[in-house]
Design brief:
475 residues, alpha/beta, binds pyridoxal-5'-phosphate
Length: 475
Amino acid sequence: MRNFTSAGLEPDPETARELIARTAERVIAYLGTLEDQRASDFDGANEIARALVEPLPESGQPYEDLLELLFDRVIPKGCNTNSPGMFSYINGGASIHGAVADLITSATNPYVGYWGAAPALVQLEHTVVRWLCELVGLDERAGGVLLSGGSLANLSAMVTARKARLTADPRHGTVYASDQVHHSVPKALMVGGFAEDALRLIPSDSRYRIRIDALAARIDEDRRAGRQPFCVIGNAGTTSTGAIDDLQALAALASREQLWFHVDAAYGGCFALTERGKSALTGIELADTVVLDPHKTLFSPFGTGCLLARDPEALRRAHELHSDYIDGVVETGDHAGTANFADLSPELSRGMRGLRVWLPLKLLGAGAFRAALDEKLDLARYAATRLDGTPGFEVLAWPELSILAFRATRAGLAPNELDRLNRELLERVNARGKVHLSATSLEGRFVLRICVLSLRSHAQAVELCLSELAACHPS
Ligand SMILES: Cc1ncc(COP(=O)(O)O)c(C=O)c1O
């Protein structure tokens, strides 16, 4: 093997090619053995982590040693987010196409904060944003920006809503969402400097959707108490159960009350590619802002979120600021929807995220994604039906999309004993490492969830998950 160390910071083309080839070999070997790898592996993980604490190396070392360290020791430790058995949290598993796009982006390193710096690549990213707008039914005036993920997108959405609708002292502003809202929303309000009690959590119904009557009553009560309601948030796929609020009713209420209507569709939004998803998401097209996470539901690598706005000018009004040193590149494109990305979010320099979504969609077509998402919808329903028919299990939230919540049962147990039983089941399943599950809390009960979203989770992986649950049931 070549000596990559002595080749220095600017290797010649042959050396660079071999560097990439060596890396590709390891990546392909890793991907090719995913089925045999554990879904999670924490054995000795802390020791390996500690061994990585070291002083700044003054000289280099052979690449083969580093690849070995990474692929044989470091990467296998923890949750394997690419595993077919990954049913915990919300994991899409990254497609190889997104990784290839990242190689191109990182190697060519374009700057896409301002149109004038790379017009064609900025347009490419705007095209991705437009596709996502079309996906959720926002019209041709809509636009947006790709961000690092749903959390940053929710933060920018709250800042945008404040700028657009909050006229009073920000400390008096109030925001409304169901008690199922993702914690990135309260975090956004905390980071954004809103009042500690700015978020009004509205109770949800038996399907974990916001109760519109309770919402209307709370808004009314707040107005009478001198607060200024300025934003209502709809969930389009909650993290715990995938529940989708009645977005049409929320849009009507927001319009009546002159509130900003934001939809957190970080998980659920891209299911609009499928017929069933589109119908479940009816009303999302009425939102002022929408969060989508391609790194969940389009199988992009982590770090690919998106904030869409019916009127991208609203994003600009909340985020635009000029400086003397940027003046040369600030001109925008010659047609609508070509705003400077740096004016639509807090970020100035960032990697181009667009290619991660553009390349796979151009290469494979939307149909490949639709088929994959339809498969996840089918598999989640299948898993719920199977669990429901298995003695010792009950389904507590049937999948609206591809998440279901359930728990193990045993006759005669008190609620806290049932919780303990389910904790034990989760620990047993995860300790075996064939599949990985996570838990949540519903109405105070500890419950388990299966999120079928990983691009590599097919029928066989779901069967394995069900048999692991049966084998580990502490009966
Ligand atoms: C509904 C919802 N919103 C927002 C987020 C935050 O997204 P991210 O992890 O990309 O910051 C998540 C994450 O799981 C989520 O499920």
